[in-house]
């Protein structure tokens, strides 16, 4: 396994642990409802699936979009570019948390 795949899993794990700790409700004294937890967990799952998928399968995703409907994609995207977008998607929430 390549080092960037392991690093992406570690970052995803940090996000999951942070989400679990934020939903514990000990800081604010208010417990979130099951619906709020379900919506947040679903959104996080989809976001991690997309970003980790772009990082792990960048070459396959870049080649797979040739000939999209209406001919908007004329050549394969480089795998490194797809992986780079995946890293941006993965790191963006952490950067926003640190910034704000």
Uncertain segments: none
Mean pLDDT over the residues = 83
Q: Figure out the total of helices.
A: 4
String of helices and strands = HHHH
Gyration radius from CA atoms, angstroms: 17 Å
Sheet/helix structural class: mainly alpha
Q: What is the share of helical residues?
A: over 70%
| Major beta-sheet overview | none
What's the structural domain tally?
Answer: 1
Strand content: under 5%
Number of strands: 0
Broad shape: elongated
Q: How many angstroms does the end-to-end distance come to?
A: 34 Å
Give a description of the structure.
This protein is mainly alpha-helical and 100 residues long. Helix content is 70%, strand content 0%. Helix 1 runs antiparallel to helix 2 (34-56), helix 1 (3-22) runs parallel beside helix 4 (79-99) and helix 2 (34-56) runs antiparallel to helix 4 (79-99). It is elongated, with a radius of gyration of 17 Å. The model has no long low-confidence stretch (mean pLDDT 83).
């Amino acid at each position: 396994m390549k080092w960037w795949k392991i690093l992406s899993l570690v970052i995803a794990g940090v996000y999951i642990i942070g989400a679990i700790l934020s939903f514990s409700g000990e800081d604010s004294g208010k417990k979130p409802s099951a619906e709020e937890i379900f919506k947040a967990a679903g959104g996080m799952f989809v976001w991690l699936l997309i970003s980790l998928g772009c990082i792990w399968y960048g070459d396959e995703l870049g080649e797979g979009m040739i000939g999209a409907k209406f001919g908007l994609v004329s050549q394969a995207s480089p795998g490194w570019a797809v992986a780079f977008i995946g890293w941006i998607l993965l790191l963006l929430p952490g950067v926003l948390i640190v910034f704000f």
